[in-house]
Structure formats: C-alpha cells, structure tokens
Records
---
Amino acid sequence: MRKMSSNNLGKRILNLVGGENNIVSITHCATRLRMRLSNTKLASENKSKIEDLNGVISVVEKAGQFQVVIGPNVPTIYDELIDNTSLNKQIENENVSDNTNWFLKVMDVVAGIFTPLLPLLAGSGVFRGLVLLANSI
C-alpha cells in the first residue's frame, strides 16, 4: 500500500466532508478523526470516496459524529489540519445545539458504565463454567 503524506490525506478528507465551513467541531481519539458536521448529508454522499483514500481504514457515522478511522497516525493528521486551517482544538462549541437523539445519549452513558465491567463479567462466567464442569466430574 502506497503511503500518502498525512498533510495530503487531511486536505482530501477535509474537502470530501464539505470543507472547514461544514465542520462544527473536530477531535480525535487513538485511531479516529471525529467530526461534528453542520450538513452530514454532504459527507455521507462522499463516504465511499473517503473510504477509498489511501490511509483511511473506514468511515463510521455514529452518535451524531462523522468518524474517519485512520489508525495510529491520526494525531499527526489532526495537528496538521488544525495548523493549516482556521479550525481550532475546541472539544465542543457550546453555542451549537446537539442534535443527537436522547436515546443515543442514554445508551452512551450505559455503555460507558458497563464497558469497564465486561472483562470481569466474562471472566466470572468462564470461572463459573469451570466450577460446574469440575463438580460434574
């Protein structure tokens, strides 16, 4: 796979989501570039073009965010986007209304609570199975 310069990849993603005027806020996590967009339809129409870019793994539209999965070099692309545009590192603009569904917000809180407990629950289930197996022998 040909490696694309992160600056070029960032510019292409920016153009395909509708330009910097369409981005309400932009952040990133370990592998994803996360954007809240004014007009999500623009980016959704170009979803397959974004996925076809070298360096992009996939695109996810979730919880009101347009997420571009890039991988471990996402901080470099994010920093270059911030440095070369008028976008800033604000986490969220308080003046913009959040258009996420209340059900998604509740599910996000529930998932945040139970996600750290999943390994414990899975481990206790395996342990319980081993105990039952040992008692049946």
Note: Residues 101-137 form one domain.
---
Amino acid sequence: MADQNQGTRGISFGRVLGARVVVQPSTLIMLVLLAFLLSSSEDGITRRGFTIGLILAAALIVSVFLHEVAHAIAARAFKRDVHEIVLTLWGGHTSFDSRNLTPLVNGVVSLAGPAANVVIAGVVAAALQATTPGGLLGAALWWVVWANLLLAAFNALPGIPMDGGRVLEAIVWGATKNRNRGTIVAAWAGRVVAIGVVVFAIGVPFLRGSTPSIFSMLWAVLIFGLLWPAASNALKVATTMTRVESIGARSLMVTAVPIPFAATVHEAAQLAARAGALEVVVLAADRAPAGHFPVSLIDAVPESERAHTHLQSVTMPMPRGAEMSPDLHGREFVNFLQQWWGKTEVWAVVEHGHVIGVVRAQDVQGALQ
C-alpha cells in the first residue's frame, strides 16, 4: 500500500472510492485453478462440480476484493487519496498516498482488511443462523464464512508482507519513533512466518504419524516463495534506509583546505600539511569551488616541479554549485546527492561561506553498503 505514479497494467473495472480497480490476468488463472481444486473429488471433475467450484472461487476473489476495499475506506477516512485497488494472482493490494505516513494511519489501514473479512464471516454466519438454508446454498454460504475467517487469519499473521506484519511494524514504529526499526522487526517476523508455514505443513502430518501430502507441501512451498522474498526485500530496504538516516555531510566529509586557482602545488602541499587536510579545493576567481585535488596525488608531481606547477593544471574539475551545508543529514543529504550523481565525484562542504571539507562519492557508497 504505497503511492504509485504509474498505473498498474491489467483489466480496468472502473473506480471505487476514486481508486482505479484493476484485475491482472493472473487473477483469472487463479480463478480457474481454484475452481478445479474446489471441484476435485474421487469421481473426478464434472461439469456441475466445476460450475460449483467456479462459483466458490469467485466468492473467494470477491472476498479478497472487499478486503482491499476496506483498506481503501480506512485510507480515505484519514483523508488519503486512494490510487488503485489491484487484484493479483496471490490476492491484491491497495495503493494510496503514503506521504507523511504515521504509525496510526499505517496500522489502522492495514488492520482494516482482515477486520473486513471477519465482519463478512460474521454477517454471513448470522444470516445462516437466522434463515438456516439447507442443501447446496447453505453449504456454499458456510464455505464463504470459513474462507473469510481463513483470509482474516492468514492476513493477520504478524510478519511482512501480511497486513499483520504492517500492524506489527506500526506498533514498533510508534513505540520506538523509528519506522525503519519497525520494518526490520516485522520483516524478520515475516521470515519466521515463512519458515513456520513449511514446518507446519511438514511437521504436523509427521506428528500424526502420516506423511505430508504433495498438495500440502506444494502449497507450503508456494506460500514460502511469496513470503520470504517480500520479507527479505523489506528488510533490505529498511536496513539501507537506516544507514541513510545515520549519514550526513558532517559525518562523511574529509577535511579540505581552500586555495586560489593561481596557487602552486608546492603552496597547496604546505597549506594542506598545516591544516591536516586530505583534499585541496581549488577556488575560482570569484572564490567559488571549481575543482579539487587529493593531497595523496601531490606525490605524483615531481618535487622539483611543484613550485612551478599551478593547481589549475592538475585540478579535477567540480561543476558549479556542487557544494552543500555541513548540516545536511539523512534523506535530505541523499536526496541532494542524487541530483548530482554521475555529474561529480566530490562535493564541497561550505560553512559560513568557507570551505571546510569535501564529501566523496566513494565514501557515500561505502557508508551505504
């Protein structure tokens, strides 16, 4: 559930709550597969049985859709624009404006989906108790009840990418005031859930003295293949963002000494030695940073020629404006660098109009790895 600028590809079915409803072709494949599974019996698959299976599969997909609509309703309750409600092979997702997200919004919107399935199960069960329909209709409606309870339970599992994982993320985020920490906890929980599904599918039959069926093992592997990569990706992103928020211009800069472009390498070497600087920033005529010269490269200039070699002949150019405040930190720092990435390898750090250091791209990359 995140902000999306480009629409998801699929079959469009109008709009709900201002959101574009999209059904991906893979959903239709799942519909047919579910119909076959639900209609399978010892007597094989009959036309009537397949029709019933198709109806039950469609009811399940409608339940998933209502689950996603509940997410959209919750997002709109917090005055968030909802962009898309998408049905996919494995369920669905709802994208909404996630700018300035808070733990409360994240938790409530995530909880709304499983809550909707519980409500659906309760309403249908109450209707069944009141009317007591028998036969095929009664059996189908009871199936809807149990299917929605299963959807609610599965989505409430406390690990990313499930809704319960996002709720756990919101709880840890609210308690620690650190969203990345919440994501990391929920992502690890998602990995535990993924392993738990496989252990449950294989271990429970063994405890009962039987052998796991191929069907249950295949489903366990499929669910593991859905949960583990999603949890791992969330963990990777959160870990990277944690590093991002821990770095800044002041923490990564190396000391630099500003020197006019007309100075010689000999003069630069002396000034850098006095300041203990690792870099020389060469100033243009208007005293704006125009280039840099790593002190380590001074040895590349023969000592006999340093007094006659001007910096402008050995300077590595810096584009005009490639300078930053030492107070840039976290995401603002990274966002600033992204505007310049590929255009320069070094940025001057300027405080009160004076160059105090440089930030090097190689140091930024090292800090983020």
Note: Residues 214-246 form the longest helix (33 residues).
---
Amino acid sequence: MLLTRLKTLGLWLTPLLLGSAAQAHSPYLKPNTFNAEQQRKHVTVEASFAEGELRPDVAMKSDSFHVIGPDGRRQPLVPAAVLKDASYLEVPLDASGTYLVSSGVRKGRLAKALLRRGQLHFTEQQEDPLPGDTPVEVQSLTRADVYVSRGRPSAVDFDTDGLEIYPVTRPYDLYAGETVTVRVRENRKPLAGETLTLIADGQSYASQKQAEQHFSTNAAGEVSFKPQAAGVYLLQVRVRRPSPDKPTLWLSNTATLTIEVQAQP
C-alpha cells in the first residue's frame, strides 16, 4: 500500500516539480544538526518534498543517496526508514570535518508540454496546439544537497558533477546580517543568467514574514545575499534546456541546497 501511494504521489508531483518555484514542491535534505560536536558520530537527515516551509509532505526516494566525506570518498546511503511523508538517513560521520550529503540525481517521469515562443507550457489535460507550437516531452531531474560538519570543519570543494548550488561562503560559517555567496554550476562550470530562489523556513511562526527572494546569477555563476534572520533556508535553481540528443525532449534540472544561518555570537 505504501509503495502504491508513493508512486501515485510521485506522478501527481511531477507537473508541480516542473512548474515555477513558488508553485512547486521542492526537494530538500534537512539534518537534525548542521554542526555536530566531536563526540557525535552520525546525523539524521530528513529527505522529502515540501511546498514553502520545510515540512515533509511526500517522501523522497532515491537510488543515489550518498555522502562524501572530508577525505573525498563517496559512500552510498540507504534510508533507515521510509515513511509516507519522509525518508530518513542515518549518515555516519567517521572523522572530523565537513561532509556533503546528497540525494544524487533523481529522474522523474516524462511530462507532456508545448513549446510556445521558446517557453514551455504544461497542461494537465489535452490542449490543442496553437500555430507555431511544438509538442515536446520534458524529463524532470532533481537533486538535493546539504553540508554537515563534525568537530572542526574542513574544505567543501568536493569532486561532484551535474547541476548543483556550491557554497562559496563556507556553509558552516553563515551568520545573520552577513553576506552569503553561492555559485550555480554544472559539472563544476558556472552558469550565468540563471534564477536562484531563496526560501526561508519557519515562517509560520515568524512575526515578520520573509517572502521568497529571487536572484540572477552573474557571469561567474554567483549570487550574493544577506539573510537578516537566523534560521534554515532552502536555495533552489531550475535549469531547462533541450536535450542535446533529441530536439523534442527537454530536460528540467532542479537543484537545492539547505543551509543554516546562525545568530550573531
């Protein structure tokens, strides 16, 4: 029953994931601590999809969950539990330093769309194309990342590939009121002119709500922003382009990075 429900929810989520950031469920990884003390040898990470607030709504499933340790070695992860709303990973922290926990690239199902004046238009029902429209299929690809540290942090420039949000400002050294810089890159090459969305968690309880913010990456693929409040934030970028091998197939890549902004000491 659980597997059937997850498959049904996955099909329902696909058009949402292909939509705009404000309307879509976002994939995220959320650890129970971002900076573990030296004596702590694991963290528990929640993997789910949410809309706005990072409250689990649909469990994330992936064959590519993994962690990259301070020594650069990659270790596959198998969820300790898969519930209806979230999966939970117990991530080993075998040594001091900073780790990258990732869902890997998750492939969704194909969705139908119309390419109209260079823009994709998704429809839940059959729609007659207008003159000049081109029917295409869109493949959804999603990835969620988070960095965690045990004891003394270490460098974070791991050997990765695919679309990702890389923290230029050290992820364990983010403070309210200070500038944070991240780089959108694909196969380690910067992407200019892409839209990065910043979503603040915990807004249900905030006296002053923080609306979603949108930034455009510069020539170096970078965005800088200054969070005014401590808390957990989700960064998201979506890159769409035609497949290099098939003109009627478009690829919709979504990458997220969860960060913790600390209060000023």
Note: Residues 1-17, 19-23 have pLDDT under 50 and may be disordered.
---
Amino acid sequence: MMNKQARSGWWEGLPEGIRRQIDGYVLQDASMAAIRLVAEIGFVPDDIGVATATAIVSDRYAHYGDRVARAPDTPIDQESLVRRVDGIPGRIAAIEAVWDGDTVHDWFVRLLAIAEDPPVEHPLALIHWTMAVRHLGEDERVEGRHPAGVVAQGVGAELAARLAVPFHFASPDTPDDEAPRWWH
C-alpha cells in the first residue's frame, strides 16, 4: 500500500474533473462510491487496490473534516428508542445488539428490536465509535472495550428492562459479527 506522501502525489496527478468527482462523493459521505471510483481509475495504470483506494478516500475525508455532510446519528436516548419500538406492530420478544462493520465506521453495533409474530428484526439504532465517545463523554473509562459495545450494552439493557423483555448481546467486550444471535 502507498504511504501518505505517495498517495498525495498520486492525488495531485489526477485530472481536476476526477478529483472533483471523488471529492463530491466524499462531501456527500458516499465513501463506497468514492472508493470504487479510485479503484476503477487507479487499478490498471497504478496498481491501486481497495486498501490503497480506501486510504486515499480516508485522506480526503480528513482533508474536509467537518465539511462532510454526514448522516445524522440515530438517537439512543430511552424516550426515542421507546417511541421507535411503539411503532413496531406486534409483540416485541427481545432487544438485541449485534456487531457489524464497514469501511467508514469500522466496527459498530446495530441495536435491534426482535418482533415475535412475525419473527422480524427491526433496526433501532447504529452505534459507532465517534457517536459512542460523544455519548460517554471524554472522561468515561471503557477499560479497553470498544466504546460502541459499552454504549450498546448500557442502552440496550436499559431499554429491554423498560420493555420487560430479554436483552441479548453475545459479544459486548469484543467486536464479533459472527457471534450467536438471539433468535437463531
């Protein structure tokens, strides 16, 4: 993979139109489209694979910082979560937290309401690193755990208790997208 200086040089060598298109995707928080474009235009002539394309797009995200139009965080306060659950038809059998991941947020937790009849999972919130750190505050200690897991454990357990249903989080301390699910 290219180092930062080589990536910067590669970026500067691109035609202005391609740079504007990639930056347009970045500014719209469409990282996958930006990564795909970098890989498409860089693979054959420059041997740029997905890892390097991801690093180049990450550099552009860092360049723009707060100017990127990020999707708003899903609310994780109890009142909002209860209101979301109230909109689900049928009886809720459990609240579940499940690890997932992508190239933008790395590991994150999906908080779900599991309906009983029909047995369907309903998304309630996505809890990623930066959102979790904001929720916890800078002084909160997580003892080496992923902040998203800490927040999901607390918020999910509290919601389940309010609803008087079980809470399931098979791997609260370590990201694991293959951990056993509640309803499988």
Note: The first strand starts at residue 92 and ends at 102.
